[in-house]
Write a structure and sequence with these properties.
The chain contains 6 helices and 12 strands. By secondary structure, it is α/β, with parallel strands linked by helices.
């Protein structure tokens, strides 16, 4: 769950250094220290491994200790977590980038994606990243889902012509034919260095996998040849 209180300021401090506690770190602290869950129970609740829970927990405890001992501001936002129910509105000056997502990477078949990772960007910097479920939306509904999400940009692997047209009608800029780490892809986009294929097309809808040797994202181009990706 998202926190009701997102900023804690040491009394008597007119200025202080900020420490960012991400929402997933907050949730681990809430479940373990307040909810008295074990790391294994917490992992099941958050749908992550026990090892990941331990890493997040140790990071969160260190940040909280730093704030208490050294009188720093504790601010809670961002991180890598799933959103359920109402999706928060995009900030007035934010750009929202959506990426087809699976296990940290760009998912390669737009029409079959079960998750998007959504990044909010301000002043060329990623300020938040969350994972949201598509709730079973198919090819035709995903463009509308992204529009409702407030997405300005989509990064994906393979995508069909019908979906490309729907995204264009929704005013969402497409960077297809991308593979690899999702976070790195967004950073490359903002730096104008993203390798993508402006002519990408995947016509094998209804198939869970392509034939051996076929990759939807072949013939990639760098962003530099198509203008500045950071200026959407």
């Amino acid at each position: 769950m998202e926190p009701d209180h997102v900023c804690f300021w040491p009394e008597g401090a007119s200025r202080a250094e900020k420490v960012i506690l991400t929402v997933d770190e907050y949730e681990v602290i809430r479940l373990i220290d307040l909810g008295k869950m074990t790391h294994e129970q917490c992992g099941k609740q958050m749908d992550i491994s026990r090892t990941t829970v331990t890493e997040i927990y140790e990071s969160a405890r260190e940040k909280i200790a730093d704030c208490i001992v050294n009188g720093k501001i504790l601010q809670i936002f961002g991180g890598d977590y799933r959103l359920y129910g109402m999706i928060p509105e995009k900030g007035e000056h934010s750009m929202r980038v959506a990426v087809t997502y699976e296990n940290g990477n760009v998912f390669q078949h737009f029409g079959h994606t079960e998750q998007f990772k959504v990044y909010d960007v301000e002043d060329g910097r990623i300020t938040a990243g969350q994972v949201t479920e598509t709730n079973g939306s198919g090819h035709g509904a995903l463009a509308g889902f992204l529009k409702d999400l407030g997405a300005d940009v989509l990064i994906c692997g393979g995508i069909g012509m019908g979906a490309k047209m729907a995204l264009e009608e929704a005013g969402i800029r497409l960077y297809g034919g991308v593979s690899g780490d999702a976070d790195e892809a967004v950073r490359a986009l903002l730096e104008g260095k993203l390798n993508y294929n402006p002519d990408v097309q995947c016509s094998h809808h209804g198939e869970g996998h392509h034939g051996e040797g076929h990759h939807c994202g072949e013939h990639s181009h760098g962003c530099g040849g198509h203008g500045s990706c950071g200026q959407i």
